[in-house]
Amino acid sequence: MNDKLDALRDALPRLVEGLEITLQLTLGGAALAFLISVAFGLLSISPVGPLRWLATIVVEFFRGTSLVVQLFWLYYVLPLFGVSMDAVWTGILALGLNYGAYGAEVVRGSINAVDKGQWEGATALNMSSLTRMRRVIWPQAWALMLSGYNNLLIMLIKGTAVALFIGLQDLTYQISELRLSTGTVFAFSVGLLIYYLFALVFSKGLRVLEKRAFRRLGITPRSSHAGAGAAL
Length: 232
Description:
Radius of gyration: 21 Å
Shape: flat
CATH architecture: Orthogonal Bundle
CATH superfamily: MetI-like
């Protein structure tokens, strides 16, 4: 056991380097996924038919194809057409597109979950579509969608491990290297613990945001789905 702990101590600098790459992929992928999810989530409820159809096609395409295949296509196929990117940016783009498509459904579903009375009340106050969305609908939908975003963020963190396939020495890669000197059980147990703690920090952060969002609406998370419609 002492030999394994010594090997772990020696590997710490490399594990930190791998964790930094995983963090870059997580933050970059999450930021891009958020932007894509909001854009296509709003387009999916647009009254303009072609925009709504475009959003549906894009979302279903990226939800219906493998993240690994998307990553390979971006990294290995695009260069054949003269378009090449750094491996980290390729990973961020693949994660953002894939999880952004799932996030678009979270946005669409959360907006549609806002009580119809809220829409009607804002319309009766002669609010424009933009004002109605910004001041009435979005704050309530935002509180509802944070739980879905939390789940997607955890999935995205785990999804960063696919970066191993394009040569990035992320946390998963470093854990695999650690296995050579400590054995499979010890190395991957360490990996499980690190990923768990890593995901836990982000999950707790989003839960804090969720509680704050509901507090601003004057309701509690437990009654969010029932009470969001009464917030106006």
